[in-house]
Design a protein that fits this description.
52% of the residues lie in helices and 9% in strands. The protein is α+β, with helices and mostly antiparallel strands. The chain folds into three domains: 3-155, no CATH class; 171-431, Fido-like domain (Fic-like fold); 449-499. A four-stranded mixed β-sheet has the order 3-4-6-5. Strands 7-9-8 form a three-stranded mixed β-sheet. A hairpin with a 5-residue loop joins strand 12 (387-389) and strand 13. Pfam families: Fic. The active site is at residue 327. One of its GO terms (molecular function) is ATP binding.
Length: 502
């Protein structure tokens, strides 16, 4: 085979594991980001989302063979596994277990079947053999786990059957975690005087609030930006529940005359409308309105469990992107999605006291990558959703899609959020602190020369920054026409001495 579901293989090979199961059972699921196949040569190729293995890796061409291969080499894809288990007969899985009752992979298959479907197979409890992890921690991140004596499996899944996105261990994420950005942030903050830190934190909050609106293409009045900034500053103080989400939406929206507040009662999508017919052209289709209440309850439960011991940034990515894919509101989803990043980081003690990282500012700097990360799942999900257009230009989902919002691969999302957090600690926080120190030095110099209101001083600094430390001819002839030539020269020198490279 050279093409699988519109994806070209690097060379002719036979799909195995999840790819083979999707084909064999015609599973309507988002195709995993990475797939496996068996080639004809004795070397491994990893290219274009494919891992081509050697003939000696070939599994037995059976349900057990491909399932075992998937668990061994590809990790867990819970949405795919659930659809597979619904497609096979209970007895088929039970027989796999009976044939190898102590097998490491058969016990994992047995546990996952009962965990995902919520019903027991007609099998006796496992013999007293060593426990095996449900999640292979060499492949994916997991929780500490609780033992399931029935299966002799340690349930280290970082969620519940109602909400459990998973994240693969990649070299990028392993490196981020090893670098211990939580402690690095504390080291940066410890070098900043408390009064200066308070001013830095206040500016970063305002900047984050403004950036979050800019990402949505909005330019609200300053009072709404400040109000949302105050909300971000309080992130993590209260546990999430339905009322907290509704409170956040009211703050974000402000004027609700044209927006129905509360959870959607209709379909939802992100995209455009055909200019002539007004038919929806979706890039992402949100969860069905009838699924929103249970999905939000499950997402809230995930937050209350402290994400079962997941790394704080990974947990923040899972919760925040899980929310935005559900898209429970008519409007305000994007800003609340980014608020949830602050919520988890603050609640888990990742932020230094009194500081919220300007994650939205970092996202705005990386807006193309951000959209690519959102689409890393939305684009694969879209082909699995059956929908029709409504007379009002909305979408109506026709099939059961709830599991696709419960289970997804959040690896790109976690890598992206970690990169944003690193930027805020490594660049944004030190840069703003440095700017304020320079500003104070410049202000002291100006005050020794001229009495000037704070607003005028801020304008002066703005003009100098825009013109590489020189006061433009237009500014000298208008806003600052009262300056003498000698004062202009001294002011420009003060700026150069205070700001250097700023």
């Amino acid at each position: 085979m050279s093409v699988f579901h519109d994806r070209r293989l690097p060379e002719t090979a036979t799909p195995v594991g999840y790819a083979a199961l999707i084909d064999a059972y015609n599973l309507p699921v988002p195709v995993p980001r990475a797939l496996s196949a068996i080639g004809t040569k004795h070397r491994i190729i990893e290219q274009d989302g494919w891992r081509i293995l050697t003939p000696r890796h070939a599994p037995e061409a059976s349900l057990e063979g491909h399932l075992t291969f998937a668990l061994k080499y590809e990790g867990l894809d819970l949405a795919l596994l659930k659809r597979l288990f619904l497609a096979v007969r209970d007895e088929e899985v039970a027989e796999i277990v009976r044939q190898k009752p102590t097998g490491v992979y058969t016990r994992r298959i047995w546990f996952l079947y009962e965990w995902l479907l919520g019903r027991e197979l007609k099998l006796p409890a496992a013999d007293k053999v060593s426990y095996v992890d449900a999640v292979d921690t060499d492949i994916q991140f997991a929780s500490a786990g609780q033992n399931s004596a029935r299966h002799r499996v340690r349930n280290n899944l970082p969620g519940t059957p109602e909400f459990c996105p998973l994240v693969f261990k990649t070299s990028a994420l392993n490196e981020f975690i090893a670098q211990d950005w939580k402690e690095r942030a504390r080291a940066v903050v410890s070098r900043v005087p408390k009064d200066l830190l308070a001013r830095t934190a206040a500016f970063l909050l305002l900047q984050d609030s403004k950036s979050s609106y800019v990402i949505e293409g909005e330019a609200p009045p300053q009072d709404r930006i400040q109000r949302w900034g105050r909300a971000i500053g309080e992130a993590g103080r209260a546990q999430l529940d339905d009322q907290e989400f509704l409170r956040l939406q009211r703050i974000v929206i402000g004027d609700d005359r044209f927006v129905k507040l509360g959870f959607r009662k209709n379909g939802g999508f992100v995209g455009e409308h055909d200019r002539d017919t007004q038919r929806p052209i979706p890039d992402h289709i949100s969860a069905r309105s009838e699924d929103i209440v249970p999905l939000m309850a499950d997402l809230i439960a995930f937050d209350h469990s402290a994400a079962n011991g997941l790394d704080a940034v990974i947990a923040a990515a899972v919760l925040a992107f899980g929310f935005v894919y559900i898209h429970p509101f008519e409007d305000g989803n994007g800003r609340i999605h980014r608020y949830l990043m602050h919520h988890v980081l603050a609640r888990r003690g990742f932020n230094p006291a009194g500081v919220h990282f300007p994650v939205s500012s970092a996202i705005l700097d990386r807006i193309v990558e951000y959209r690519r990360v959102l689409e890393s799942y939305s684009s694969r999900l879209l082909s699995c959703i059956q929908w029709e257009a409504t007379p009002g230009g909305n979408v109506r989902v026709l099939n059961d899609t709830a599991d696709f919002y419960r289970f997804f691969d959040a690896t790109p999302h976690a890598e992206f959020l970690y990169a944003c957090v690193r930027q805020t600690i490594e660049r944004d926080l030190p840069n703003e602190t440095s700017f304020l120190l320079s500003f104070d030095t410049f202000r002291a110099g100006i005050e020794s020369m001229i009495d000037m209101p704070e607003r005028t001083l801020n304008n002066l600094v703005g003009f100098l920054r825009q013109n590489q430390g020189k006061l433009s001819k237009r500014a000298r002839e208008n806003e600052f026409a009262a300056f003498t030539e000698d004062e202009v020269s001294k002011i420009e020198q003060l700026y150069a001495d205070a700001f250097g490279q700023h």
